[in-house]
Amino acid sequence: MGKVAVLGAGSWGTALALVLADNKHDVHLWTHRETLANEINRTHKNEKYLNDVELPSSIKASNDLASVVSGAKHVILVVPTKAMREVCGQLKQVLNDKTILTHASKGIEPGTFKRVSEVIREEIPSHLYEDVVVLSGPSHAEEVSLRQPTTVTVSSKELEVAEKVQDLFINRQFRVYTSPDLVGVELGGALKNIIALGAGISDGLGYGDNAKAALITRGLAEIARLGTSMGANPLTFSGLTGIGDLIVTCTSSHSRNWRAGNKLGQGYPLDDVLEQMGMVVEGVRTTKAAYQLAQGQNVEMPITSGIYRILFESAEPRDVVDQLMTRIRRHEMEDLTNILDEKMNE
Ligand SMILES: NC(=O)C1=CN([C@@H]2O[C@H](COP(=O)(O)OP(=O)(O)OC[C@H]3O[C@@H](n4cnc5c(N)ncnc54)[C@H](OP(=O)(O)O)[C@@H]3O)[C@@H](O)[C@H]2O)C=CC1
Ligand SMILES: O=C(CO)COP(=O)(O)O
Question: Do 183-345 and 3-180 fall under one CATH topology?
Fold first, then answer.
C-alpha cells in the first residue's frame, strides 16, 4: 500500500490515521507541534485528543511537513476550518507530486462564505493535485478509534477520484459511500454544527426530547433551504451527511458542538466555554457565516438566527426559544415541497 499523509493530529486526524493504518497504508501524521509528534512516536498515544487509544507503530508522527507529504499519493487535510488557509499555504511550498487532496473538516469561512474545498482550491495551485475530495458523515472520532461501525460519504468534482478515496478508507468497520453532490455534502457537514449547538443549548436549559426532535427536523429544513440556494441537491440532506450527521451531533455527548451548547444553555459565557473545551467548536464560526449568508441571500433561517443572537448578541437562550415558538403560523413542508417541485421540473 502507498504512503498517505494526514495533516492535523487532533481527534479526527488521529482517528482517520488509525483507519488508514488498519488498511495497511504507510501513514505519516503531521502536527505543527514537535512535542506532540515526539509524544505520539514515543508513547503510541495521543492523550489530549484521543486518550487511552493505542496507536500502531506504523503511524509515524512528525512536525516536518515536507517529509510527511514527500512521495504521498494522498494528502488528507484534517485541521480546523480556521487553520485551513494557513496550512494550505505551507502545503503548497512542499508539494511536488500531483496528489489527491481530501479534507475532512466541517465549516464555512465567515466573510468569504467559502466551503473548505473552495478554500483549498484558492490556496493550492491546481497542477499540484488531481482533485479535491471531501469526506463527511456521522463519525465521532472516539467511536471510529474503537472500530465501532461507522458510515461516511466522499464527494468530489470527478467521481472517479472520490472512488479512489473510497477505496483508500473503506473497511469492515468504516463503510464509505460516494456522492456526486460536493456542495451538499460539504454544506450538510458544516451547517449541522449550528443545530448541534442549539440541541446542546436546549438540553442545557432542561428542555426534553420533544424540543430536540423539533430542532433536528426544523434545523434540517433550514439547512436544506440555505444549501439548495447555494446549489446543493436537496436530497443530499436526507443522507448521511445531512440528517445522519445532524442526528449524531445533536444527540451525542461526544459532540463538542453539543457540549459547548449545553454549557451555554446552563448560563456559562461563550468565551469561558470555548476556553474550557480545548478542542475546536466549528459551529461558532459557521453560525456567523451562515447567518451572514442567509441575510445576503434572503433565506429564512430562524434557528440559526436565534443561535447567532445567543452567541454574538448576548440574547437569553430562553427568550430565543420563546421567539421561535411564537413565530407566525406556517405550513410545515411549504419550502421543501417548493424546492422539490422546482428540481423535478428542471
Ligand atoms: N472530532 C471528530 O469526531 C470529527 C471532527 N471533524 C472535523 O475535523 C476537523 C478537525 O477537528 P478535530 O480533529 O476534531 O479538532 P481537534 O480540536 O481535536 O484538533 C485540531 C488539531 O488541529 C491543530 N491545529 C489547530 N490550528 C492549527 C494550525 N494553524 N496549523 C496546524 N495545526 C493546527 C490542533 O493543534 P493544537 O493542539 O496546537 O491546537 C489540533 O491538533 C474539524 O473541522 C471538525 O469539524 C469531522 C468529523 C468528526
Ligand atoms: O462532526 C462530527 C461527527 O460527525 C463531530 O462533531 P463535533 O465537532 O461537534 O464533535
Answer: no
> 193 by DSSP, 3-state: which?
helix
Among residues 264, 279, 240, 333, the alpha carbon closest in space to that of 48 is found at: 279
The ranges assigned to domains in the chain are 3-180, 183-345
Put simply, whether the predicted model's pTM sits higher than 0.90 gets the answer yes
| Residue 92 annotated in active site | no
Domain 3-180: assigned CATH number:
3.40.50.720
At 90-125, the pLDDT tens digits run: 999 999 889 999 999 999 998 999 999 999 999 999
Of the candidate CATH numbers 1.10.1040.10, 1.10.3720.10, 3.40.50.2000, 1.10.760.10, the domain formed by 183-345 belongs to: 1.10.1040.10
195 within ligand 2 shell (Cβ under 6 A): no
CA of residue 97 to ligand 2 center, whole Å = 32
Question: Each residue of 71-97: b (16+ CB within 10 Å) or e?
Answer: ebbbbbbbbbbebbeebbebbeeebee
Cβ 90 vs Cβ 64: under 8 Å: no
Q: Is the CB of 249 under 6 A from ligand 2?
A: yes
User: Which ligand gives the minimal distance to the CA of 260?
Assistant: 2
Q: Render pLDDT for 207-219 as a digit per residue (tens, 0 to 9).
A: 999 999 999 999 9
Q: Which of 6, 7, 11, 91 to mutate to test the pocket of ligand 1 (most atoms within 8 A of CB)?
A: 11
Binding-site annotation: residue ranges for sn-glycerol 3-phosphate: 106, 137, 139, 192, 245, 255-257
How far is Cα 102 from Cα 93, in angstroms, rounded to an integer?
Answer: 18
| pLDDT band for position 281 (cuts 50, 70, 90) | very high
| 259 touches ligand 2 (CB under 6 Å) | no
ipTM of the modeled complex: 0.99
* CA–CA gap between residue 82 and residue 291 (Å, rounded): 17
